[in-house]
Design a protein that fits this description.
Length: 377
Amino acid sequence: MAILCTTTSPAEKEHEPKQDLEKDQTPLIFNPSLLNLQSQIPNQFIWPDEEKPSIDIPELNVPFIDLSSQDSTLEAPRVIAEACTKHGFFLVVNHGVSESLISEAHRLMERFFDMPLAGKQKAQRKPGESCGYASSFTGRFSTKLPWKETLSFQFSNEKSSSRTVQDYFSDTLGQEFEQFGKVYQDYCEAMSSLSLKIMELLGLSLGVNRDYFRGFFEENDSIMRLNHYPPCQTPDLTLGTGPHCDPSSLTILHQDHVNGLQVFVDNQWQSIPPNRKAFVVNIGDTFMALSNGIFKSCLHRAVVNRESARKSMAFFLCPKKDKVVKPPSDILEKMTTRKYPDFTWSMFLEFTQKHYRADVNTLDSFSNWVITNKNPI
């Protein structure tokens, strides 16, 4: 569930060159309806042998957090802390988000990705930006391309930005997409509310006042992404999303019925099967920095298959862009060293969009970049 893009293998190793598209290179057009007519996928989508998907992998034991339980504030923080110190993934059920809203969001996502390529390209993402339509990452990279297309748009929880999503769809795709805007505005608002509830539990699990992180993210500047992973004639050669850690703070993912999400835990890839009643939640790099490294932002990826398209919806919770990211004093008082420098989300977002292809080392590389360049906040 990357907020950004894909890259390296899970091994901790020297950073490989980031394969940016050369200025004189013509980007490949990712049109799966045409590419699937070929016997072999283009070389740009073929991943190195050590990064190709595994055939048989175990299922990850991910805890379920019941948000309707009266004991949720007692037991849930302990369970969350155990999961987040190991791999950063858990599931939330009885979350209070309307099933009809989730279903409608999935239905409209399918309608969008079923459109002709030219129609989707009206929302084409511009270079260096994090939002818009992206057919793979062909406009930015030339190797290890993901077998997917996405539509990303911004959401702001500030009172002065109450129609951010609605306006995006109408302004970018036209008034005929007004219903899309209304549904995804409602969906993002529901995700923002859910994320603030989860932030209360994360605070308790870290021994911090339950209102601390909720207040920190109350006026969030977040990103919503719709993901479409088309069927692929050679799924053993490519990946839907390469191994990465999410640079954002928290990801709330809803999957359709097709398997594909994998997490790297205990030196092996493990799957998280779809569950229509649950949201998959995972810690991102920014929250790992907020916890001073106590909670982990874990490597994960998405695989594709030959028979079925897979779709998912990811809400990436991010702080307000000018908010300074640093651990609360309650955490720092118990630790001897700071693991990461102070930064703002706008700095981190710019780094991942313009300077670095997201991988397992993104936060460490960004921290070194901040220190080396003495970037003021």
